[in-house]
Structures are given as structure tokens and as C-alpha cells.
Amino acid sequence: MMTKTPLLLLLLAACGPNLEGSWSGTIECENTDVPSTLTVEPGSKGVYPATMDWDVDQQVEGKGLTIDIEFDLHFDLEITADGKGEQTLQIRSLGTEMECTVYVDGELFTDSCDEAGIDPTELEDEAGDFGEVTWDGADTITVADADCSGTLTR
Question: Mapping DSSP to helix (H, G, I), strand (E, B) and coil, where does residue 11 land?
Fold first, then answer.
């Protein structure tokens, strides 16, 4: 039994941390804080299936009205990591779903992006470009580009 223990410890040490798990944090895009959740599933050969959810709430006031806009964005992703340790991740969007809800003075105006005059394809295209995403090899993922920046931790 004692001879198996060092081998087991060696195997566990060789595995090291990977991307799998739940990550959360805030990503700031164009002066708006976006609570974000990233779920990374077990992968194969450095490629991980993942989903990211953004919950965006914006409030606009003017002409005696208060307009609250809620966007829920869901991304299906494929993340490629090159081994272990600190590195830049390659992220590919496989699909995006978006829901919009608009309230005027607290009353539901619409739950349709089209009726609200919001073009989901334009927002989805922008949101699907994650810019430079780095992983510290442990428990922090950092997003940085011209429009968005932030940190996700697990």
C-alpha cells in the first residue's frame, strides 16, 4: 500500500489546475458593470465547452420618464487552453441568445428586443468579441480589450 501512495501523489501533482468549474465576477463594458458567470465543462486536449451569462441592467432618465432596460445574454463558447500555467485563452463563440425587457416608469413596456428598437444581432456581435482573455493558471481569468475589461474568479 505504501508504494502506491507516492505514485498517486505524483499523478495528482502532474494534473495541476485546469479551467473547469464556475467563474464569476464583473466585466465593465462602456462604463456599465456587467455581472458575469462563466461555466467551463470538462474538456479534451485543451478544448473546453463553456457557457457565459451576462446580466446587464441600464437606467435612462429624461423627459420625465425613467426607462429601465434589462439584457440577458447567454453565450455558448469553446475555450482553448495551451497546457497549464499563465496564458492567453482562445475563445470562440458558438452561439448567442439574448432577451430584452424594457420598463417605463416601473411598468412593463415590452419584453421584445425588436419592439424596443434594439437590434440583438448588433449587440451579440459586439458582445461575442471577448478581446484578450488571459488565465493566470490558477483561479483568475482577466478580460481586456478596447470596450470591456474585468476579472472572473472561482
Answer: helix
What is the bridge-based pairing of β-strands 148-153 and 87-104? unpaired
User: d(Cα 28, Cα 58) in Å, to the nearest integer?
Assistant: 13
Q: Which of 56, 50, 54, 20 is nearest to 37 (CA)?
A: 54
pLDDT for the residue numbered 65: 84
Could you tell me the end-to-end alpha-carbon distance of the chain, in angstroms, rounded to an integer?
A: 35
- Residue whose cell numbers read 419584453: 111
Decide: 52 and 36 in contact? Cβ < 8 Å. yes
Spans of the chain, pLDDT less than 70 = 1-16, 120-129
Q: Is residue 4 part of a domain?
A: no
Domain for residue 11, yes or no?
no
Q: 37 is in which domain, residue-wise?
A: 19-153
Instruction: State pTM to two decimals.
Output: 0.77
Q: Are 69 and 102 in contact (CB under 8 A)?
A: yes
Domains contained in the chain, number? 1
